[in-house]
């Protein structure tokens, strides 16, 4: 199964998501989107396929969101996309694409919705939260 993650290794949510993909026995294509940003077409498709609006896909925390005035409700999707493409840190992460769908994996366990049920056992996030039990089944 081909899986792609738009990853930021400095982000705990992104690291947890990547490890959950690997826990399912998959080695994804890892795109460090700060080094290799998606094209406008790719970004638009990621957002659309994940069922999000452009505004829902923009990252506020730890970015120049406020200083750029991106909270202005009159800004169009095109203007927001322009800002995200100019400064990729504004792209929320991690986006994951698999044959089973596309997700913005926030929280990281949302990635489980688009992975096969082939997990190798328990999984605990970096913060200590258990996500999968010893049989690889999702803890609800």
Give a structural overview.
- With 140 residues, this protein is of the alpha+beta class.
- The protein has one domain: Glutaredoxin.
- Helix content is 23%, strand content 15%.
- The chain contains three helices and six strands.
- It has a four-stranded mixed β-sheet, sandwiched between helices.
- The longest helix has 12 residues, at 12-23.
Blueprint of the fold:
Elements: E1 4-7, H1 12-23, E2 29-32, H2 40-49, H3 77-86, E3 95-98, E4 101-104, E5 123-124, E6 130-132
Parallel strand pairs: 1-2
Antiparallel strand pairs: 1-3, 3-4, 5-6
CATH top level is: Alpha Beta
* Estimated helix fraction: 10-25%
Report the count of strand segments. Answer: 6
- The domain tally reads 1
CATH topology type? Glutaredoxin
User: N-to-C SSE series?
Assistant: EHEHHEEEE
Instruction: Pick out the low-confidence regions.
Output: none
Strand content: 15-25%
Radius of gyration, in angstroms, nearest whole number: 15 Å
List keywords for this structure.
140 residues; alpha+beta; Glutaredoxin; four-stranded mixed β-sheet; two-stranded antiparallel ribbon; 6 strands
Short description:
By secondary structure, this protein is of the alpha+beta class. It contains 3 helices and 6 strands, in the order βαβααββββ. The strands form 2 sheets. It has a 4-stranded mixed β-sheet, sandwiched between helices.
